Description:
The protein is α/β, with parallel strands linked by helices and 378 residues long. It is 49% helix and 12% strand. The protein has 16 helices and seven strands. The longest helix is centred in the last third of the chain and has 20 residues.
Amino acid sequence: VFLLEKLSHQHIKTVMEVGCNVGITLDYCKTNWNLEKVIGIEPSAYGLLGKQLLDLEIYHEFLENLPEIRGTAFDLIFATEVLEHVPTPLDFIRLLRGHLKPQGILLLTTPRSGFLEPSAPTGELYAALSPGSHYFLLSENKLRELAFEAGFQFVHIEPFGMTHVAILANTEIRLSNPGNTEIKLLDYYQKKQENLPTDERLKLGYYLNYAIHLSKTGHHKQLMADTVLNQSIQVMLSGKYALDLRNLHTSIERITSCISIFDLAKQMPFNLPHYLYWQAFSSKKVHQWTDQLIQQLEFARLVCLTGLKVDFQNLFVYHELLNRIDTALEHIPQTPSSMQIKKCSENIRRKIPELNQDTPKHFIRRIKERLKRYRYTW
């Protein structure tokens, strides 16, 4: 969303996302922008799910195989973390350019080769490399060369964490200051409260994200006073996952026994630890620390560690949250119930090699040697 909001979208009326997954970002554009046409392309099963749950026009096919789209031009096309999955990137960029209007904009993100440094966060390194999934990592110069070779006249490339952000157009464009995107996300989730989906898991996800962004944007009293929202979350967590926010220690064994990301998904929504952290943060702004709030933070830490243990690559976002929770809990007195959760967390932490070494230098060296050997010189 931060990247999309860098674009001046007042004149954008038609949007296509290639590789839209379920389509949440596409739905954000549809909900918050005044659009006339929104299309998603997703060949995986997630596309079918998004079409059903979000009522989006998502095509379950590759773009080049869609006669329905042939000849259709868009004001904006974006494809985030897709380019590296394509064996012929130049052909792909040309294909996307062919679907742009003369004044259209193409936004691409792709992992950057310059991110491969020993000091980089381990989880993000795993995600950037994704052995067996990514064909290459591009340098900025190579990405720029591909963009010009594809025919673009305006090429803006900047680093954004582990990725390149490329904003490409046939004519020069002026980028905007995205402002506070957390407020824009709050606006999106607030609008979704007025038209919630029927699917219970998706509905819970919207509830949780709305609460998270109320806290992130400083609406602590509003979050604490919204009894309907908080009760809905508690009822749905209890009904769908048998999670009791007042007695989280009773769910320790179920969470810690998970051995895969699929097991974990059966036990909780993936944004649960973020909700527990931010809800506790807002509660502390309004009240004092209580046993339940400290339990919440400890349980959020337990979930983060369990997620990193079962799938560090796909759940690497838990690493940043884990650091936040570790910092918060340093100065909070423990209670007997929170100590029980903390001991389990410490046992899990010791079993995660990525959290018990300074930097994975041997890992980076081995990958770089392999890239050279196979002559991936992008």
